[in-house]
Amino acid sequence: MKKAMLFVVSFLFAVSANAATLDLTLAGTGGFLGGATQTINSNNSSDVSASGLGLGVTWYSDFVLQSDKNTKALITFEAIGASLSNHSSINVGFGDNSPIFSAGESPFTGIFSFSQTVMLTAGTQYFFLLDGIKNVAGYKLNVSAVPIPAALWLFAPALLGFFGLRRKAQNAAAA
Q: Is residue 77 part of a domain?
């Protein structure tokens, strides 16, 4: 009977380890003498991506990201081809324009690419503003939700099992 009750109780604590669903939308593009092109490559999954090409003397691409769960996310940005520009930058922040992080490039650092891990709150809008000045190549933006590993949920029952073995050994020693 005890084993059956423990089996039923274990189902009450079963938790899904699925990653959050991310939604990436286009928020605009522009610039002086050409602006930029932007495309959403994949959306509404745990991995979203976008790409584009800066075309003008100055340009910007703006994206909005939203998550359905609180989750950790890995943001990867990379230039395609050559260095993005003499003065390129990416700004990531909340919908009210308060920044999470910014990264920029001087004309001497070569190809501009980076990865950054951030915490996303469910229902909060985050913006990505990519901009550059001349000498533009393409860019690629990827955001991946990081799921909680299933091993984390398996650890607690195993730990309880060890406590049970210890208690059983103590009872056997006392008898």
A: yes
